[in-house]
């Protein structure tokens, strides 16, 4: 389609566009927004993982194990059992 327009020098000229130019971008907005949300979520997950806050350590599990105390038994008493 030819369209009349003005240049910066205020001269009239014709503007000719080629290709497809959709008058409404709404149908393309949904996939673009979905993809941007996915990118932002992955970026935040990677940032939290890098800072170590994604899977925080359970402090109850960080204490050393309490092992049972063994009682020494002499060999002769153990053999008689």
From TrEMBL:
Record-level Gene Ontology MF annotations: chorismate synthase activity; FMN binding
Keywords: Amino-acid biosynthesis, Aromatic amino acid biosynthesis, Lyase
Gene Ontology cellular component list: cytosol
BP terms from Gene Ontology: amino acid biosynthetic process; aromatic amino acid family biosynthetic process; chorismate biosynthetic process
Pathway assigned to this chain's UniProt record: Metabolic intermediate biosynthesis; chorismate biosynthesis; chorismate from D-erythrose 4-phosphate and phosphoenolpyruvate: step 7/7
One Pfam family per UniProt: Chorismate_synt
EC number: 4.2.3.5
Cited SUPFAM superfamilies: Chorismate synthase, AroC
InterPro entries noted in UniProt: Chorismate_synth, Chorismate_synth_AroC_sf
Similarity comment: family membership: Belongs to the chorismate synthase family.
PANTHER family in alphabetical order: CHORISMATE SYNTHASE
Name of the molecule in the record: chorismate synthase
